[in-house]
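## tool: complex_structure
## caller: assistant
## args:
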Amino acid sequence: MKISTDAYKGVRDFYPDDYKIQEYIFDVWKDTLQSFGYEQYDSSVLENAEIFKQKSGEEIVNEQTYTFTDKGDREVSLRPEMTPIVARMIAHKQKELSFPIRWFSMPNLFRYERPQKGRLREHWQLNVDLFGVDNKNADVEVISIASALLKSFRLTDDKFVIKINDRDLINDTLSEMGLDEKQAKKITKLLDKKNKINNFDELASEIIGRDFVWKPEPNEKITFIMNELKSLGIENIEFAPEMVRGFDYYTGIIFEVFDTGKENNRSIFGGGRYDDLISMFSNEKVPAVGFGMGDVTLRDVLETYDLVPEFQAPVDLYICVLDEPFIRAANIIAKVWREEGLHIVVDITGKKVGDQIKKAIKLKSPFIVCIGENEVTTKKVVVKNLETRKEKKLKIEKVAEFVLKSVLG
Amino acid sequence: MKISTDAYKGVRDFYPDDYKIQEYIFDVWKDTLQSFGYEQYDSSVLENAEIFKQKSGEEIVNEQTYTFTDKGDREVSLRPEMTPIVARMIAHKQKELSFPIRWFSMPNLFRYERPQKGRLREHWQLNVDLFGVDNKNADVEVISIASALLKSFRLTDDKFVIKINDRDLINDTLSEMGLDEKQAKKITKLLDKKNKINNFDELASEIIGRDFVWKPEPNEKITFIMNELKSLGIENIEFAPEMVRGFDYYTGIIFEVFDTGKENNRSIFGGGRYDDLISMFSNEKVPAVGFGMGDVTLRDVLETYDLVPEFQAPVDLYICVLDEPFIRAANIIAKVWREEGLHIVVDITGKKVGDQIKKAIKLKSPFIVCIGENEVTTKKVVVKNLETRKEKKLKIEKVAEFVLKSVLG
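## result:
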C-alpha cells in the first residue's frame, strides 16, 4: 500500500507557482514596512502556552490552539497569534531596548478548528507594532502604514475603506449614559455584533431597561487622527461608532479595513492600541499600537481584483547541449554567466535537441543557447529569443550583458 | 505574579539584530539557488506523521519528533525533515509535472530531544533537490551548488573540503569480499563510525571472521564526478571510502562538506542520491539527488571565520521635528521620499531636538533632517550626514536622490 500524498487537513502545500504568490505578498509586506523604518524580528513556532492563556482564557487556548505537554512537563503551543509573543520579547529586553520601537514580523500562525473558507489551520500574518509612543501621532502612523500596504498591492482607494473607532469613546459614552460596569460590558459585546443581528435595539434596551440610542459623535482624538490621515491623502476613512473588535487587549483607537466590493463586503484586517499587554510580563507600562494582516484573506482580495502580477520565469537563459561530452563546456560557461547575474539551467539529460528546447519553453525561459563543438571552438554562440524567435550571434563574454538588458527591460 | 519572558526551551527568539543574520543566510541561499534556475516551494509545518515512519521507523518518529494525535484522530508531526515531504509533493503531481525538476525550500524543522550546542529543537534548513535525472551529471550539478553556496558566503576553498563516496561502491566492494547481506549491513553501520571509534579493525574482523581491510579504489562514477568538478574549479574535493552517511534512503553518490579548521573539524552539511524515496508514494520511480544545509551550523561557521557582514541601518534618513504642529508636514514630506525609495522614520515623540538626534544616532541612520516653520516656508532642508557631520542645504525634491546615491554607494 502506497502512502497518501495529501497534505495534512487544513494546511497548504506551496508548489513553485503557489509559492511565487506567497513570496510576492512577503516581499510587498517587507518593502513597505522597511520604507517606514520598521525592523523585522521573529520567534519560534513553539511557545510556552501560558502567555496565550492570560488574555484569551484557559478554555479558548485548550480548544482553539495546538497545545500539548512535552517530556519536560512544559505546556507548549504552536503560536496562534504574535502579539503576546512580541510583548514577551519586548518585556524580556525592556531595559536595553531604546524606545520608540518599530518592529514587524511575518510569522505562520496556527489555529485548531475545523478548516473553512478563509480560515485554515496554518496561515501567515504580517504583524506591525509601534511601541513606546502614547500620543495620537502613533495611531496616525500605524493606520497610514495599513493604507500604504494595500496601495503597494495596487489596491486603489475605492476598493477599501478604513473604519475607525475608539474604545475610550465607547466607554465614556456608556458611562455618560449612566450604565454600570456590567451593563457597559454587555452593551459593548452586543455592539460588536450590531451589524450581524436584526434585534439589536430590542436586546440593548432590555439590558439597560429603557430605549437605547447609539449615536456618539467622534471625539477630539478620532477627529485629529482622521484629519491627519486626510492630509496624507488618505480619504477612504470612516468613523464607525459601533465597531468594537473582539480582542480584549485593545485600550484606545481601533481600526478595521473593509473591502468595499458589493459581493465581498468583508473585513480584510485590522488593529488598534493595546497599552496594557506588556504589563503581563513587566511592571513598567509600554504603550503600543499595531495590527495584523493575514495572507489568506489578502490573497483572496488580490485574486478577486486580478491584482496578482505575472511572475518572472525561473530561468533567464537555458543552455541546450548538442552532444553529451559538451556538458562540461556548458557547465563552465554557465558558471561565468551566473557570476554575471544570470539564472541558468544547463540541460544535462542527454535528450534530443528538440526535447531540450521544449523544456526551455516549458520553463518560460526567455532565451536559449545551444553548445557544441562549433561554439566551443569559435567562442561564439547564437542567443535565441524564444518569444520573438529572433537570433543573435555573440561572443561568449557578451551574452550575459545582452540577456540581462533584455530581462531587466 | 508576572509571566516569564523566556522563550520555550531549545528554540530562539530573533530580535532585529539576530534576524538580520538569519535574513542574510536566507538571502544568500535563495540568490544562489535561483542562479541555478531552482524554484522555491514550501509545505506546512504540520505533516501527517505516517510519511516519516516509513523510512525512519515508528520508534524514532515517536521519540525524536513532535508527534501528536489531533481531534480527528490523525497523527500529525511537526516536520522533522523536508525530504519525505518533497517526495510526497512530487508524487502527488507526478503526472502534471515536467521533469527534470529543480526545487529548493528553506523550512524550519523540529526535533524533540535535549537541546545541545548546534542542535536546537527548531532550526532552518536549505533543501536542494534535482528530480528526474539518473545520470552522473546530476550529481555534479548538485555538488557544484553545494560548493557555490559556501563561496557565496565568502568561505574560501581552503576553509572546507567536500568528501565524496558512493553507496554502490561500498555495496560492490563488500559483495566482492564475499560478505552476505547481514554481514554487509553490519560492516556498513560500523564504517559510519570508523572515525569515531578506536577498535574499528577489531570489530570489523569479528563480523567477517577474518582480517578486514578497507581500501576500495574510486570507481568510474566517482572519478568522473571528481574530474568534472575540478574542471569547474572545485579542487577541494576528496574521495572518502569510509563515509556512509546515516540516512537509509541514499542509493548512490553521497557527499559531505567539512570545515577544515583544526579546532572546528566539523561536518557542515551533506547530501546524496536517493532514487527510491518517491516509490513510498508512487509506482513510478523518480531519480533524485539533493542535500540539506542547516542554519545553526552555518551561522556558527560564519561567526568562526568572521564572515557575518555589517548590515545596513533600518533608516536612511531620520526626520526630527522642531515643533509638534510640524509632524503633519514631516509626514507629508516623508511620504514623498518613501515613494522615491528611502527608508524613513519621522520622530513623533514630541521630545527635545537633542533627544530626537540621539535616537537617530542609536538607529545608525546615516542622515538626519529637521523640519520646522522655516523648512516648510522655504521648501528647503539641511541634510546632515551623521557620521561626517557634513551638512548640505537642498530643495525638498532633491533630497531623496542625494541620500540614495550616498546610501547605495
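## assistant note: The first helix of chain B runs from residue 16 to 35. Chain B touches chain A through 94 residues (CB under 8 Å). Handing back to user.
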